[in-house]
Specification:
This protein has 287 residues and is α/β, with parallel strands linked by helices. The chain contains 13 helices and four strands. The chain has a four-stranded mixed beta sheet. It starts with a strand and ends in a 16-residue tail after the last helix. Bound molecules: zinc ion. The site of zinc ion (ZN) has 4 residues, from α6 and α8.
Amino acid sequence: MRIINLYSKLQAAGEAGQKGYAPYETDPELRPLARHARNWEMDVESAREWLASPEALAQRESARRYLEQAPAIVHRVEAAFGRELPGTLILAPSYDEFDGFARYELGEHTVLLGIDYPGSDLDYLKALTAHELSHVYRDHAPEVWRHLGKPLSEISRREYLDASSAQEHLVSEGLATLFSQLLFPEIPPVVHHYYDEAEWRWVEQNHDLIHRSLIECLNDDANVWSYYSDSRVAPGSPSRTQYYWAARVLSERIASIEDPSKKLRALVELHERPASHFNEFSGRSGS
Ligand SMILES: [Zn+2]
């Protein structure tokens, strides 16, 4: 996967007195990002202002360490998947707005990581990289979108989003959460779920409640995205309980495998199965 260090390039452009979107016109590596950069309003001035803020300065050291290690981290992910991943990984200032997301368009993925996201550290960024790249691998596995009846390169962003069912969402987020845990087992589970200690305690103590809530949701309107909200399961429940639940449910499939490398390989194979393979998320079983 191609890595673009937009963070350092915008920083240098600011120091060199460049303006607006000039780096996206003068730097050949940044030229393909020009359209995205305008949509995301990542011009030189806004970057300079953000990078000088106390919040960004507090993250500068962990961002620097991550930048140093990013190629090795991506290599470790690709080695686990046994292939070089398609697309571009953009390492960017976070503007306190995003930590990471994968954007699909016509067979290509652009993964954007906000490497100075407030409160993040090297472990957090490693887990996040593995998580987002797990989505990329799954989306490019031939079986996953075969039901759309055409090659991925011809599938538009709109078609892709429309085809992202509740089941696909749960499978994809569950696998991504599990994958980062298996790839970096030395990083505590709470980090792989992007929770603080209190949020982690809540999900651990309320697993049955979360389970019943999601089964009920799948049998009702299946709006599993509503679990991005706080207090969706019960008052005080944290965001993203659907990730926690999906990861825990999917972990049953590989629970009996003890050897860590075999376990990882089995998880990679699960990435290649279409959503219809995972009857765990059909909603029919209330057990
Ligand atoms: Zn995800």
